[in-house]
Design a protein that fits this description.
Layout: E1 2-6, E2 30-34, H1 41-49, E3 53-58, H2 64-78, E4 85-90, H3 93-108, E5 115-117, E6 122-124, E7 130-135, E8 149-153, H4 161-171, E9 177-182, H5 189-197, E10 203-208, H6 210-213, H7 218-227, H8 230-236, H9 251-259, E11 263-264, E12 274-279, E13 286-294, E14 297-306, H10 311-320, E15 325-330, H11 345-351, E16 356-358, H12 364-374, E17 378-381, H13 386-394, E18 397-400, E19 405-410, H14 416-427
Parallel strand pairs: 3-9, 3-10, 4-7, 4-8, 8-9, 11-17, 12-15, 14-17, 15-16
Antiparallel strand pairs: 1-2, 5-6, 6-7, 12-13, 13-14, 18-19
């Protein structure tokens, strides 16, 4: 691919979402800068079809990272705005460095006056533009930045709040562009974004399975099918959102209870008390499930999650909801003393009127088995619990890239908080054995 750099100031800069026109010999106002990138036919088609916002679902070995890095370089060199800033975001910082850093340096090496900043994982281009690599594992590091364009690689593995809370506002004043690209991980927020992109102005979406692109040889795909499960192959090479996520703990159970009608409208019953199950984060998110029990049925009527908030915030959330609470379940680490105050979060919560019970301390593996046993009894409100359900479906075993096998413990990512909170309800003793009384929010005590 080539990029153009104006040698004369233009009367009016093009909006960032539009690709700059190629120079003509007659005009002779632009010069061509070769980066050495020669896109494959499907990559070239995508480069030309992109709009301001884009959702691209690609098969393995499509070349999406090479595509993404070169799209950023091309846009950065064409940008007429002052101090252009572009970002490549991977699920983890170390992943961004491993996957994209060498590509970014290689495709900018032929450009004059380029400065690669190893410590910052950033490249400064001759026109003052900067392309930086980031990880979604620390979303709040991205707050306060502005972007002329971003690529979110494997968006399905990132926290859902990253786009709406952080990246979209960072694009606003510069009218920046965004490309979401990746392979399916079930019907999670990447799937939701793909669905929303259909028919929206300024949005483009595409699914590129291996059977259509022709990038991988037919013999290679046949060989892969022989050693992969049908779901694995459908997900990784045919871009199927319907396939079960590899290593997922609860995907099959969720599909089964959805088929039985247990995911839909589950209204709050004011006759039944509500218990809450918590995962308390400090740097991470805090997640809360709201459950009612009716015989053997466990009704999950609501879900709440937020980040960078203290216990007073969550106490107010409980008070503002119309529920009557019987108990609040928290993990054992609520009893750890904070260095700043010298108090435990259990003591702080009690001072705010939130009286916690501490769930039994079991291993994560035992807790996951308890969740598997409990889920068939659960009914979920599909709207109020949408975010929690998405996390449950995405929760999966960690994969050891070096050993090429699944580890025995779960992958810690954005989906962990909702699952850890639900685990509190699964491992706790039934409420019949609980001696506490009902707690009424209208009296100021939650």
């Amino acid at each position: 691919m080539t990029a153009t750099k104006p040698t004369k100031a233009k009367a009016k800069p093009s909006p960032p979402r539009k690709r700059a026109k190629k120079p003509t010999a007659a005009a002779n106002t632009e010069k061509t800068i070769a980066t050495g990138y020669a896109p494959r036919p499907h990559q070239a088609d995508l480069h030309n079809q992109l709009q301001r916002f884009n959702v691209l679902v690609t098969h393995r070995r499509f070349g999406k990272t090479v595509f993404a890095v070169n799209e950023l370089i091309d846009r950065a060199l064409r940008c007429d705005l002052a101090r252009p800033r572009y970002g490549y975001i991977a699920p983890f910082s170390v992943q961004a460095k491993t996957v994209a850093w060498d590509y970014l340096k290689a495709w900018t090496a032929m450009l004059p006056q380029v400065k690669a900043r190893e410590t910052d994982l950033a490249v400064d281009l001759p026109n003052g533009a900067r392309i930086s690599l980031y990880g979604a594992d620390n979303p709040d590091r991205l707050r306060g930045l502005y972007f002329d364009g971003v690529i979110l690689d494997e968006y399905g593995d990132m926290p859902p709040r990253l786009w709406g809370e952080i990246i979209r506002p960072a694009l606003a004043d510069r009218e920046g562009f965004a490309v979401f690209i990746g392979t399916p991980r079930g019907k999670n927020h990447f799937y939701d974004l793909y669905e929303q992109a259909g028919g929206e102005p300024d949005w483009y979406r595409a699914i590129l399975p291996a059977s259509k692109t022709g990038i991988l040889a037919a013999a290679e795909l046949l060989a892969a099918q022989k050693v992969m499960s049908a779901d694995q192959y459908a997900q990784e090479f045919e871009c199927s959102f319907a396939a079960a996520v590899s290593g997922a703990y609860f995907a099959e159970i969720l599909r089964a209870i959805e088929g039985k009608g247990q995911i839909g409208q589950v209204p709050y019953d004011p006759i039944l008390p509500v218990e809450t199950w918590w995962d308390l984060g400090i740097g991470d998110a805090t997640a809360i499930w709201f459950a009612q029990r009716a015989g053997r049925e466990i009704r999950l009527i609501d879900y709440y999650e937020a980040s960078n908030e203290g216990l007073p915030h969550y106490a107010r959330v409980l008070q503002h909801l119309p529920y009557v609470y019987s108990r609040h379940l928290a993990p054992h680490d609520i009893g750890v003393r904070e260095l700043g105050s010298g108090k435990t979060r259990l003591e702080i919560a009690d001072s705010l009127g939130v009286r916690f019970d501490i769930a039994p301390r079991l291993t994560i593996e035992d807790g996951i088995e308890a969740m598997r046993a409990m889920l068939p009894q659960c009914w979920f409100d599909s709207e109020k619990c949408r975010r929690g359900l998405t996390a449950l479906a995405a929760y999966r075993k960690d994969y050891d890239e070096a050993m090429k096998n699944w580890r025995s413990h779960p992958r810690h990512d954005w989906s962990s908080h909702a699952c850890d909170a639900l685990r509190m309800g699964a491992v706790a003793r039934p409420p019949a054995a609980h001696s506490g009384s009902l707690i009424y929010p209208k009296n100021g005590i939650v």
